[in-house]
Amino acid sequence: MRFLSPEWLTAAATLVKDVEAGTLPAVTVVQRVTGGPTGDVIYQMVIDGSVSLVIGDTSDPDAVILTESWDTAAAINTARLTPHEAVLSGLLVVTGDRFVISELAPVFASIANALSALRPATTF
Description:
The chain is an alpha+beta fold. It has helices at about 5-15, 70-75, 85-90, 100-105, 105-115, and strands spanning about 25-35, 40-45, 50-55, 65-70, 90-95.
């Protein structure tokens, strides 16, 4: 299945729903991936004790927005680039509360671990 296709996002949503976010405050993180083979892809992760992945944008004014190119998203997904490296090099732009992102680092690591199960079946 193609990376970030509706099929891939549906499979990803199933995998991340078991990720626990503990007692962190509820937050919505919007992922905007630009320049993909079928255009831009926007999805959101609602983190509120657990993780829900929803296709589409949000109207939450407090959402943290992550914007990156398709190539950057693919490099992060395949572990060729860390999110930290992407932010430092300007390849991943964070809009909103950066402190929230640092607080969520363990949750993001758990999400990445869960999504690694999709790699063998994913084409880029």
